[in-house]
Specification:
It is built from 18 helices and no strands. It has helices at residues 6-21, 25-41, 48-67, 70-107, 125-140, 150-158, 171-179, 186-219, 226-257, 275-279, 284-295, 305-323, 327-343, 347-350, 356-378, 382-393, 406-425, 434-451. Helix 8 runs antiparallel to helix 9 (226-257), helix 8 (186-219) runs antiparallel to helix 17 (406-425) and helix 12 (305-323) packs antiparallel against helix 13 (327-343). The longest helix has 38 residues, at 70-107. It is globular.
Length: 464
């Protein structure tokens, strides 16, 4: 069940209306947990057992971490991390590492055909695994009490709006909200629905329209001209942003309707004036997770310049690997880490007070760099990524394989401009006037209906 489906709209309306009819928080928690289980099982039902297993492990690990001290406390923490990372290793990385081992033996002239596991990756595994780990880590650090109510803890991990693609929440933010009964709030409903509509618009009207060009150029690289490939790369940059941030908008909006506030995951990242600033605005929940649980524990910037660079490199390599079991993601992460190492600490990176044209130029340069790196992220393998880049610089003429008409191309550019202006200058998603809210709702629904690309493309980050 994807957010951009009729099934989800029916699901959301039924769950939300039932949610507000219930007069106790206990009933609401049970409703949301059952609804979240149903939502997750609509993809691959049997994988609920994997998620349930990790929930049970971490629930009891929280108690054991809290009640013990010294070596025993650390042991239970380590066992909890092994259980979570082990699930990721088996389902997401086992075949990847096995394939590389087999290839290495072939290069050495030896045969070692280790068996691959034939199974689909549980949807959103990296997201809810990292959210579960943040709970046990916070309990270990003494910043979060172990949750006594199993149903509340299970809902913290499984809350359906952010279950499969984030944001990756911390227990201090979500757990207290799940326990507090909050009456129906029309202002929150308006704000949440307005944000959901904006997320739907970004997904079905912009992202899926841009995907038609990006998919064609990345799928027909040898036949495409340099201009077509450049357009495809730029369109993919905006596709992945509208796709992922659109999901976040729907997730935050759906939660807001039920009076639950989730953390912001994006803050106009393509307006960043440098790569370091970009990572403070893009996928904020993941960036802050790696900062708090990897970068700082490794020493952060407290142990000298060389150590800081090593820590940054480790974080971005892990970030690349987190996104997928493919060398393209690892190279993508490594290159981002390299540019962060080269640029962080540079006074030109974030210095304000410069002329507008200088800041505009820096935004364009940074967007170009990020777009170049997205080529690795989008390509099926490193060979395809390098071929794509080489073809761009070959200056092959024509505009072959853009895949859309001139009118559709100009319309796509207009949509990108509207989206960027809307997110830069709009004051949030709150609409005070009821009449304006109804007009906005009608306009967005009609825009999605008439201009949407309804092919039920799965959200890109579902695969992670």
């Amino acid at each position: 069940m994807t957010f951009n489906s009729l099934q989800f709209l029916v699901f959301f309306m039924v769950v939300t209306l039932w949610f507000f009819r219930l007069k106790t928080q206990k009933g609401r928690i049970w409703l949301l947990l059952i609804a979240s289980c149903y939502f997750y099982m609509s993809f691959i039902p049997e994988y609920i057992l994997i998620l349930g297993g990790t929930i049970v492990v971490d629930y009891f690990a929280g108690f054991l971490i809290e009640k013990n001290v010294g070596a025993a406390r650390k042991l239970w923490m380590v066992l909890s991390l092994i259980a979570n990372i082990g699930a990721l290793a088996v389902f997401k990385y086992y075949n990847f590492f096995l394939g590389n081992i087999n290839t290495a033996f072939q290069v050495l002239g030896k045969t070692m055909d280790l068996p691959f596991l034939k199974m689909a990756l549980p949807i959103g595994l990296s997201f809810h695994t990292f959210q579960a780990m943040s709970y046990t880590i916070e309990v270990y650090r003494g910043k979060q009490k172990a949750e006594r109510n199993f149903v509340v803890y299970a809902l913290y991990v499984m809350f359906y709006p952010q279950l499969v693609a984030g944001p990756i929440e911390r227990p201090q933010n979500v757990l207290p909200q799940l326990k507090e009964f909050r009456a129906y709030n029309w202002d929150n409903v308006k704000e949440g629905l307005a944000r959901m509509l904006w997320g739907f618009f970004k997904k079905v009207v912009i992202a899926d329209r841009l995907a038609m060009v990006a998919d064609r150029t990345f799928g027909h690289t040898p036949e495409s001209s340099s201009v077509a490939l450049l357009i495809g790369a730029v369109f993919y940059s905006f596709q992945i942003y509208c796709d992922f941030s659109g999901y976040s908008d729907i997730a935050l909006g759906a939660a807001k309707v039920m009076n639950i506030s989730l953390m912001e995951n994006f803050k106009q990242p393509y307006l960043s004036k440098g790569i370091h600033e970009f990572w403070s605005r893009w996928h904020i929940s993941l960036s802050s997770w790696f900062r708090d649980y990897v970068y700082i524990p490794l020493g952060g910037n407290r142990k000298g310049s060389l150590r800081r660079k090593i820590n940054v490199a480790v974080v971005f390599l892990l970030s690349g690997l987190w996104h997928g079991a493919n060398w393209t993601f690892i190279v993508w992460g490594a290159l981002h880490g390299l540019f962060v190492i080269l640029l962080v600490g540079n006074s030109n990176e974030l210095k304000e007070g410069r002329p507008a044209f200088v800041n505009t130029l820096r935004v364009i340069v940074n967007f170009t760099l990020v777009t170049f790196l997205w080529i690795f992220f989008r390509s099926e393998n490193l060979s395809n990524a390098l071929s794509y880049i080489q073809q761009i610089f070959s200056l092959k003429g024509g505009t072959h394989y853009i895949g859309i008409s001139k009118v559709e191309f100009l319309f796509s550019l207009a949509l990108i401009a509207i989206m960027m202006l809307r997110e830069k200058y709009a004051a949030g998603h709150y609409i005070a006037s009821n009449s304006r809210f109804y007009i906005y709702t009608a306009f967005m629904v009609l825009a999605c209906y008439f201009f949407g690309v309804f092919i039920e493309n799965q959200f890109i980050y579902f695969q992670f």
